[in-house]
Design a protein that fits this description.
By secondary structure, the chain is of the alpha/beta class. Helix content is 35%, strand content 23%. The chain contains 13 helices and 20 strands. The strands form five sheets. It has an eight-stranded mixed β-sheet, with helices on both faces. A hairpin with a 3-residue loop joins β16 and β17. The two termini are 39 Å apart.
Amino acid sequence: MLITCKFGGTSLACSENVRRCAQIVKADEGRRYVVVSAPGKKDKQSKKVTDLLYECHANRFDEGVFNALFGQIRAIFQEIGSLVKNFPIDEELDVIYNQIKFSESNIDFVISRGEYLNAKLFAAYLGYTFLDATKFIRFKNGELDLPATLEKAKEIDKDGRYVIPGFYGLNKNGYVKTFSRGGSDITGSIVARMFDCDLYENWTDVDGIYVSDPKVIKNAKKVAQVSFRELREMSYMGASVLHAETLMPIYEKRIPIVLKNSFAPELSGTEILKKRTEVADGEVITCITGKNDYTCIQISKMLLDKQLGFVKKATAVFEEYHINISHTHSGLDNLCFFVENSEYKEISFEAFLKELESRIDADKIVGHDKIALLAVIGHNLSGKIGVLAKIFNALQENAINVKTIYQSISECNIIIGIENDQLKPCIKAIYDKLIG
């Protein structure tokens, strides 16, 4: 069995953790392709290397601050580098120091250096070959260009054993381009696809996927299996599982993923499959999760159902300002667009409302901010009698006011809009009622 295994930042935060991950790799001959993140936090007081690199770039003209920040990075890598005899760790760090401090390296290049150096170190420790992600991962218009990536991957010898840095590749101009944070998960998926692997193992610091965040629900139930569709919904709605785009490279090949704990490799973890093979009797809910800080734009128009092209005209304004619509709910005479607050980059929320009013012939446009969206995700939800009743009972018993509710025809999720400050109480109320 050919396996791609990806190790997250916490799993590689120090030499002790790196040694443990190396033992995991060597325990199975099939683990020939390894993807690594930059070192993460080894304790509550420390910082992630990627965060330190961001700060270094921001303070590169302040020598005192820059040197103090880079000194923290140097100390982290020197401690990890102590595992590998004769590895030129100081020389490697000096090169990165100069690239950040004295050249005009773009921010993506700078923040990619954590994965780059960690992969070099881990490859040397394992006795594997270092394979830079710039050799094959390609971006186009800011997004992964999977066809070009897979075409470049044909040039790589599939008989090798490689350690590959996650998180980045090259854009069409030949410059380093990164995925969004957590993008090493996507790199692992790409590698599993290009080497035709039988399994993609994603090693983190948790035992698998839980029905809800253990920080919110103490002793939350672990899920044995999750479908690709459920995972997409979970990741998109804020569950810290895998990057939401992880499935794209492997979806067509149906390569399974297993999420495991590098600190307890003997545990079974959670399987992520194209279609679940096991659904326990009475098991309905896979995950209860949510995200804060949405705005809701409510558009009212009498006889909206008769207005051909009205929706297209409205969404064109969002597209023009590069504002992604997360969810859309509609009624006979109204539309509701839900947008993450972070989407308003080129224009303020208030200015956008005014622009929208000037561009479409609506009777009324109202904006509501400080909205949280909670998702109840599960297997064949619409086919289970009483689920919605239990949810509404839980909310009523806990005096939680519902702004909006929507159940998808895909039978996979129920989305509830509430006030920001009610998100955690709402998750707990629904968990207690549906899971117990």
